[in-house]
Amino acid sequence: MATIVQFLHSIPIDLLIIQTVNGVVTGMILALVASGLTLIFGIMDVVNFAHGELFMLGAYMGVIAFAMTGNFWLALALSALILAIFGAALQIVTLRPLIGRDPLNTILATFGISLVLQNYALWQFGPVARKISEPIGAEFTLFYLQYPWYRIVIALLSGAIIGAVWLFLKFNKYGVWVRATTQDRVMAQAMGIPVPLVYTGVFALGAAMAAVSGVLFAPFGGVDSQMGLQWVLEAFIVVVVGGMGNLGGSIVAAIFISLLEAYAAVWLDPSQAVIVSFVVLILTLLFRPTGLFAAPK
Amino acid sequence: MSAATEAAEPLVCVEDVHTYYGKSHILHGVSLTVGTGEVVGLLGRNGVGKSTTLKTIMGLVQPSRGAVLFAGKRITGTPPHKLARLGIGYVPEDRRIFRLLTVTENLRTGLDRHGVTEERRKTLLDKVFTYFPVLAERRGQAGGTLSGGEQQMLAIARAMMLEPRIILLDEPTEGLMPRMVAQIRNIIDVLHGERVSILLVEQNVPLTLEASQRVYILEKGCVRHHCAASAIDVNDPLIKQYLGV
Q1: Does B131 contact A at CB distance below 8 Å?
Q2: Is residue B127 part of a domain?
Q3: CATH number, domain with residue B197
Q4: CA A5 to CA A167: how far, in whole Å?
Q5: B2: Cβ contacts below 8 Å, ≥ 6 apart
Q6: Are A227 and A57 within 8 A, CB to CB?
């Protein structure tokens, strides 16, 4: 009993609150990356290994558009638009011909695309990370820290984008098409829904979401050809833990895992804290392989 | 064989169609026609290729030989979503309701087409809600929570949203209570009254003979017999031969 009380007293409350804010902020960006991934998987049955590279290209497009326009938010919108068009073209050229084939085909295809894009970026933009400054410089005081407002804005913006996608899926005509296609693509076709077009649209949407998260994240870590790797790994963990193809599950899982990692970092070295998410992944695969928040079948 | 009742201008024409699932040869040269406004029954034991015939017309499986014509035009190879928009409605055997979509959303999948005015939507919805009042009661409920009979009604109502010229009905009364069967029977007559053609696959022989003008009997992927529905009854030796257990 005494040891528990002692332990509880040893918890630094201020640090926990800071880490909660950090966890939620990271979780929201992660949720944005993961929801693009889970959307593509849920609807097209495509495990998109190139998602991290779309994130990375989005960040580069943001940097370039920022250099040209000088406006961060305009650059963000341009990057999303460019990556949506690029995603649509990529889907038509590489994935559409594979519809109906074994999933292994699309896995190899997207993996190949990711290698090509990574090396293209390295060749085109060089190995030195590009910098982009935060569009909002203001900070507020959180205990002993000066916490940047930009991080809070990111979290809210990510939430707003995910909310907008949810509203689109729920109420829009094309959203209903997307959901019908997810549930039964054969019957969706028989109801006159142009399924190949739905696939292309969803891939474009997923690419745009990856691009937005890439641009939003760019001011923290810099932009280089490898930046997608770490995010896509975390995003895959989130998608599996949240239930493959389950949008709501991914969001909850993203925040859950980011919070766990943030809390773990209170006691562990941050590089060891990453282990926590792998532990969650393994436990999920062992005990709830369909995901912690699997939708009822 | 009575060719007297053959429709003058067939809406759907299946010509010597051969269909394979992988290596198994399912349809061995099926030919049949459905006239405009005609109800045609397709009888036969399980596994003789009745559902495959419907799927071939809908473009869900591709025939290796032969052709399907719709209103005189060859539609073999046309993607299903285009066929749906041309006016072919499909009600599959297992109903295939979008389980997580509400009743209204299920109907919307057929309504959100190009050129459907707000007024037209309302008329179409009113119509199915009149024939299937239970769907109106459940309009906000997920399709997967409906009973089997309600799902069947929703599947038919959903196909009706396309304002089709022909509906391919696959075993609509399978596993339903008699009251529901009567309701399905009723909607077939209503559609017939509106000059919508129906190709009806059924195990329920009396219902099929009552509802259709002509029937085809399939065995082992071939049409074995074809006649006016009035020219045959449930106790006919042919029925025993091809459908008896």
Answers
A1: no
A2: yes
A3: 3.40.50.300
A4: 46
A5: B227, B228, B231
A6: no
Residue B135 lies in domain: 10-243
Please enumerate in sequence order all residues whose Cβ is within 8 A of that of B143, keeping only pairs 6 or more positions apart, or say none: B97, B98, B99, B100, B101, B102, B103, B106, B151, B154
Q: B105 near B158, Cβ under 8 Å?
A: no
Q: Are B66 and B239 in contact (CB under 8 A)?
A: no
- Put simply, the answer to whether B109 touches A295 (Cβ < 8 Å) is no
Domains of chain A: 16-287 (1.10.3470)
Interface confidence (ipTM) of the complex: 0.89
Residue B157 lies in a domain: yes
- Closest-approach residue (CA) in chain A for B107: A191
Closest alpha carbon to B73 in B82, B60, B61: B82
- Residue B1 within a domain: no
Please indicate if any CB of chain B lies within 8 Å of the CB of A99: no
**Does the beta-carbon distance from B105 to A179 stay under 8 Å?**
yes
Q: Give me the tens of pLDDT residue by residue for chain A, a chain 297 residues long.
A: 778 888 777 777 888 888 899 899 989 989 999 999 988 988 888 889 999 999 999 999 999 999 999 999 999 999 999 999 999 999 999 999 998 788 889 999 999 999 999 999 999 998 888 888 888 888 888 878 888 898 899 999 999 999 999 999 999 999 999 999 988 989 999 999 999 999 999 999 999 999 999 999 998 888 998 888 888 888 999 998 888 778 888 889 999 999 999 888 888 887 788 888 888 888 888 888 888 876 544
Domain count along chain B: 1
Cβ-based burial of A178 (10 A; exposed 0-12, middle 13-18, buried ≥19): buried
